[in-house]
Structures are given as C-alpha cells and as structure tokens.
Design goal:
It is built from 15 helices and 11 strands. The chain is α/β, with parallel strands linked by helices. The protein has an 8-stranded parallel beta sheet. A 3-stranded antiparallel beta sheet has the order 7-11-10, covered by helices on one side. The structure holds ligand TUI. Ligand TUI binds next to β7.
Length: 314
C-alpha cells in the first residue's frame, strides 16, 4: 500500500521506526531504511558530534532516505539542529516539545519536519507552522508520553488537520497497523518491536527484559516532574515511585532527588545492560514482542495485510 507519506518521503512502506534515545543509532536506522521503511537516528540528549557520527555512518550504510529525531529537551538542541542542516538530512521528527523555534531553519534547508504531537491543539498549531505531517503518539508508547491513548488521539487529530497523520503508540504487529489505517492514519511509527531487532545494538539484557515482559509490566514514572516516562518495572522504578509518592502533594516537592535517581539511567540500561537499576523504556506492546528478528522481517510482518485495508478504504 502506497500512502501519501511514502510519496512525500520517497519510502516504500508507510512504517517509521521510532527515534528512541540511546537506542536508535545508524545500525538500526539504516536497516529499517534498507528494508523500505523510514529509519530514524535519535539525537536524544547526545552531544552534537556523537549524532553527526551516526548520521555519517548511516549515509555509508544506506542510500535510502532516513530521518533524525530531535529531542527538544536536549541541552544540545540548537547545535544539533544546525548540524542536521549542515549534514543535509532530509527528514526530521521531533519529540517532547514544540519545534516552532527551529522551523525557519528546517524550511531554509528543505528539510521535511514531522513533529510528535500528543494533543489536537498542538497538531493544529504545527499544521499552521507548515510541518509536512504529524505523528500522533498515544500513551501506550515507551519513553516520554502524553495523556491520551492512540485509539482516541489518532482519529481526533485526523479530523483536525489536512496533513498526513502517522499513528504511534501500541502499534507493533499487522493488526495494529491495519487498525491505525482504519482510524484514518496515513502511516505508523513503531518503537518497541524494533528494540529486539537483530540490527538493534541495545544490550542483550535490555532485549531479554522486553522479550520476557507481560502485558502489565510497564509503569509510568515522573508524573510529578511534568515529564512522564513509560518504562518496564524494576528496582529503579520501585525506588523512584516510592519517592514520587512521598513528594506528591508537598508544596515544595524535592524534584532534585528524583532527577538524581533518573539521571544517566537510560544509558545504564541500554549500554551497560543494568536492567535492575537502569531505565528500561518500553511500550505497552512488550507483552506481545516474543522474537528477535531482522528489521526486514519485522517490516514485512507489519505490512502483510495492508492491501486488505486498502480495499476496505477504497
Ligand atoms: O519524545 C518522545 N519520547 C521520548 S523522549 C525521551 S528522552 C527524555 N529525556 C529526558 C526527559 C524526557 C525525555 C524518551 N522518550 N516521544 C514523543 C512525544 N512527544 N511524546 C509526547 C510528546 C509531546 C508531549 C507534549 C510533545 C509535545 C508536547 O507539548 C509541547 C507543547 O509545547 O505543547
């Protein structure tokens, strides 16, 4: 099925790989792009040169389009945006904020911008700003999340804007992909399932924790800080949620204490494989992710029934 987003970006299948901080590197992104989807390198909180190196590696590994995800809370965000323009990246997705400040620079450099939105209001603001599409991400996702589920967010965003809507959050097999198209989406973004891809360089302990997870094994931490994050339950989340409970309702909650617990935790899990004391970000779909396989096999499995949906929508 060729959707509008495939024509806009020059990709074969309407499947984006989520821009997962510390996880989505040149290896994963190039494998997804080579398989016909849109691979995305995550800038996360990484310094500019680290991200530049991944972009250059991806250019060696694929001649297909790939994107870069800009995490708008990064301390390096301004520098990263300049570097992305210098490197001639064609597609940028953004997360965890409003990319308005950077839009002019992206436009000057002919970059397609596709922000993640978690509400109708932001989707409309983004459309007015001239973005090429939006990713409507439900709170089933791993990592930083909004408040609405994919099932209710996607159709409301679809009705509110006239640009393509990519559905994200809780989509990790062909049933979810088909459902997203029935909700009016023009493409999907998948994160959790790619965590266990052969080409994903995340520590094996991280993959094993996702593979073993059950439906109810994720929790949301950080509601009190204003940056809610979905992760798999472990020793860290137990300690974090205990402090969060203590501090909730206080006039001056000790957010520094929480900041300390969370800082460096994602790297600890992804790079060091410390899945007890690190932050194992994962979506709610983890309970159905049971097999390590190649990005090409994952993409073929995701899109296998899309022609049936196309027939219904015609
Ligand atoms: O960004 C993500 N997921 C992420 S980012 C991340 S790393 C991180 N590090 C420190 C603190 C926070 C995160 C791990 N996972 N997904 C995209 C996403 N964006 N989900 C929700 C949003 C979002 C939420 C509110 C986007 C915009 C927004 O409002 C902006 C506004 O100004 O209204």
């Amino acid at each position: 099925m060729k959707s509008k987003i495939c024509d806009i970006l020059g990709i074969e299948y309407p499947v984006f790989q989520g821009g997962m901080a510390w996880v989505a590197d040149a290896s994963l992104a190039s494998a997804v792009s080579n398989a016909g989807g849109l691979g995305i390198i995550a800038a996360g909180n990484a310094p500019t040169d680290v991200v530049r190196k991944q972009i250059r590696m991806a250019k060696e590994l694929t001649d297909k389009p790939f994107g870069v995800n800009v995490m708008l809370l990064s301390p390096f965000v301004d520098e990263v945006v300049d570097m992305i323009c210098e490197e001639g990246v064609k597609v940028v997705t953004t997360g965890a904020g409003n990319p308005g400040k950077h839009m002019a620079k992206f436009a000057e450099n002919g970059i397609s911008v596709i922000p993640v939105v978690a509400s109708v209001a932001l989707a409309k603001r983004m459309e007015k700003m001239g973005v090429n599409a939006v990713i409507a991400e439900g709170m089933e996702s791993g990592g930083h999340i909004g408040k609405l589920t994919t099932m209710v967010l996607v159709p409301q965003v679809v009705d509110a804007v006239n640009i393509p809507v990519i559905a994200a959050g809780g989509i990790a097999d062909s049933r979810g992909v088909n459902a997203a198209f029935m909700l009016g989406a023009d493409g999907v973004q998948v994160g959790t399932r790619f965590l266990v891809a052969n080409e994903c360089t995340v520590h094996q302990n991280y993959k094993n924790k996702v593979l073993k997870a059950k439906d109810i094994d994720t929790v949301i931490t950080g509601n009190i800080t204003g940056h809610p994050i979905r992760v798999l339950k472990n020793k860290l989340t137990k300690a974090y949620l205990a402090v969060e409970k203590q501090e909730t309702g206080k006039e001056n909650p000790d957010l520094d204490r929480l900041e300390e617990l969370g800082s460096g935790a994602l790297k600890k899990a992804v790079v060091d494989g410390d899945t007890d004391n690190g932050s194992v970000m994962s979506g709610q779909f983890a309970g159905l992710v049971k097999k390590e396989e190649s990005c090409a096999d994952i993409i073929q499995d995701l899109i296998k029934d899309l022609d049936k949906v196309e027939a219904v929508l015609k």
